[in-house]
Design goal:
With 197 residues, the protein is an alpha/beta fold. The chain has helices spanning 2-19, 86-99, 114-117, 143-154, 162-178, 182-186, 190-193, and strands at residues 24-36, 62-70, 75-81, 104-110, 127-131. The chain has one domain (2-39, 60-190): Ribonuclease H-like superfamily/Ribonuclease H (Nucleotidyltransferase, domain 5, 2-Layer Sandwich), CATH 3.30.420. The protein has a 5-stranded mixed β-sheet, sandwiched between helices.
């Protein structure tokens, strides 16, 4: 399945460029992740042979970070939203569209979530979505920032209130953006564009 995307990607990008003459085509990736009280355990450092206790919550308040990433320019556009659905995806697309330079058209890799493909979406003129095959998360580099945020900022925590969740998401997102080169290194698409593999 991955090879199918790799074979089609150059032709897909050429078709997008042909449909948007005079525009610079940038390859972006987009995804979202849940952050909340029903948290996740992750690996951590501890003395050999020990199993330190870690907090895990069983409540259900959560928020979603919607993120879009451009490794070429090392930039990202994100929103922290209460749900993952078509209305929230529309807000995210509108935000991405507003942040793109006037001469740029984003060719954006997304997975097959229903809200990424909903007929109700009004696709901005400066964004074209590229679907990855089912069950191939390795084809979407937008998965890597979530692992980084959860491993370094958002795991092994208890969030007392919904506001605590929002503040933690905002802190994690801004911390990642403030690290020079972090977005580019996490979301590199060289493996998708390397035709020798």
């Amino acid at each position: 399945m991955r090879s199918r995307l790799l074979k089609k990607l150059p032709a897909t990008l050429q078709a997008i460029a042909a449909a948007h003459p005079g525009q610079t085509i940038e390859l972006w990736c987009q995804d979202e992740t849940r952050v909340g009280q029903k948290g996740r355990r992750t690996h951590g450092w501890a003395p050999k042979g020990s199993r330190p206790p870690v907090p895990i919550d069983t409540r259900y308040d959560n928020a979603y970070i919607f993120g879009a990433f451009c490794p070429q320019r090392g930039c990202a556009v994100g929103l922290i939203l209460p749900h993952a659905n078509t209305a929230m995806m529309q807000l995210h697309l509108n935000e991405i569209s507003a942040e793109l330079p006037a001469h740029v058209h984003a060719a954006m890799i997304t997975d097959g979530a229903g809200w990424h493909r909903a007929q109700a979406l009004r696709m901005p003129d400066n964004i074209t979505l590229i679907a990855i095959p089912p069950y191939t998360p390795e084809c979407n580099p937008a998965e890597k920032p979530w692992q980084y945020l959860k491993d370094n900022f958002l795991s092994h925590r208890l969030f007392t209130t919904y506001q605590d969740i929002l503040e933690a998401c905002e802190h994690a997102w801004n911390s990642m953006l403030n690290e020079a080169g972090r977005i580019a290194s996490l979301t590199s698409m060289d493996h998708l564009l390397d035709h020798d593999n």
